[in-house]
Amino acid sequence: MKARIHVYLKPGVLDPQGQAVSNSLNHLGFDEVTGVRQGKLIEIDLNTADAEEAQQRVSEMCDKLLANPVIENYDIELSA
Amino acid sequence: MKARIHVYLKPGVLDPQGQAVSNSLNHLGFDEVTGVRQGKLIEIDLNTADAEEAQQRVSEMCDKLLANPVIENYDIELSA
């Protein structure tokens, strides 16, 4: 099965990369843009069929490697 | 309204970052991981209420700045 993970900065954590993208968009004439936050999208192929186990293992991967729990949140979507 | 954009490498394009994450996960004991692809997640706040116009403008932003159309695909989700 496949897991799609979104990793994004917690609210309140400064996001200079998003700020830079926001400024660039404004400079390009996209005046309707008022804010940008940038995160990571991680897609994992898993050699397992048990959704409950997969959810638990992927959470563990996020805590250990994929996200920095001090400044980032994540959510996980599983699909067959 | 808000736009959430996923930018990911086209199939067939080499993803060394994803490969590195995949190797690290295997080393940490997550043997069920068979492949990883890493992309970008971009969240934009828009000062507009017209969903159709927003969709069109955000596509333009992706083509001009946020994605590299030679090697990347993107999809856009809008929410109020």
Main attributes?
homodimer, about 80 residues, alpha+beta, Mth169, Chain: A, 2 helices, 3 strands, elongated
Terminal residue distance of chain A: 5 Å
The CATH architecture of chain A would be 2-Layer Sandwich
Give the oligomer, counting copies of the same chain as homo and different chains as hetero: homodimer
Tell me the fraction of residues in β-strands of chain A, as a range. 35-45%
Written overview of the protein:
The structure is a homodimer of 80-residue chains. The first copy, chain A, is an alpha+beta fold and 80 residues long. Chain A has a single domain (2-79), classed as Mth169, Chain: A (2-Layer Sandwich). Chain A is 35% helix and 38% strand. The first copy, chain A, is built from two helices and three strands, in the order E-H-E-H-E. Chain A has helices at residues 16-27, 51-66; strands spanning 2-9, 33-46, 72-79. Chain A has a three-stranded antiparallel sheet with strand order 2-1-3. The mean pLDDT of chain A is 96.
TL;DR of this structure?
Two copies of one chain form a homodimer. In chain A, 35% of the residues lie in helices and 38% in strands. With 80 residues, the first copy, chain A, is α+β, with helices and mostly antiparallel strands.
How do the helices and strands line up, and which of them pair or pack?
2 copies of one chain form a homodimer.
Chain A: E1 2-9, H1 16-27, E2 33-46, H2 51-66, E3 72-79
Antiparallel strand pairs in A: 1-2, 1-3
